[in-house]
Amino acid sequence: MIEARHLHKTFGTTRAVQDVSFSVQEGENFILLGTSGCGKTTTLKMLNRLLEPDGGQVLLNGADTATIPAPQLRRGMGYVLQHTGLFPHYTVAENIAVVPKLLHWEKDAIQERTATLMQKLGLSYSEHAHAYPHQLSGGQQQRVGLARALAADPPVLLMDEPFGALDPITRDRIRTEFSELDEFKKKTIIMVTHDVQEAFTLATRVCLMDEGRIVQMGTPDQLREQPVNDFVRTFLKL
Ligand SMILES: Nc1ncnc2c1ncn2[C@@H]1O[C@H](COP(=O)(O)OP(=O)(O)OP(=O)(O)O)[C@@H](O)[C@H]1O
Ligand SMILES: [Mg+2]
What we know:
By secondary structure, the chain is an alpha/beta fold. About 40% of the residues lie in helices and about 25% in strands.
């Protein structure tokens, strides 16, 4: 279980995240939703200590993450960055292998895992494993980003707009394929999106944010049926 308690983060005079608290149960797909700049990425980055909060705590299975060394924490939490964040000078296979290598997996095991994941995510190993990110389409790069996050089979997956920057048709296809993978079904996932339909399709619970704060949190049905204010109604186009 992951619990955020009263998280705060300020950049200069920008109060990016203010008093954000939630808890995510094992196996949930928890989706942070909101307009650009509302604090989604900042919240996600505080969960695995890519950013340290100015106030508040994150607990992972009851342990304060501030006491867990950041590299160890991140190995248990796959992270899909906004705009893929692939290493440009690493091949596709090298990008996918980053965490298994850190964990000193055997070379054969790494290659087998890489090939399996590429196949699952619809990427041809023979065609793409030794290509560089810039030689792939945007959709293919996003698949590599997903494969990299899944490589060491972490129990928790943090995903920041994993299907962003794609045309609506490709986005829909990749999202559907991904949601049908066993990996997606069994992992605890915290995902960021600004796309209402995407959130409502994938989420067990949605956390709608505005200006650094949580406006409403609940199942898609709860938000649809009991919006707490006009912001929620407008955002969800109810
Ligand atoms: N490193 C930083 N330095 C200064 N300001 C920052 C930094 N990171 C984020 N901010 C500011 O904090 C606020 C929240 O940013 P954040 O990236 O969390 O938004 P977001 O909800 O992920 O937006 P988007 O949907 O556009 O990705 C914004 O006003 C942003 O400009
Ligand atoms: Mg963001």
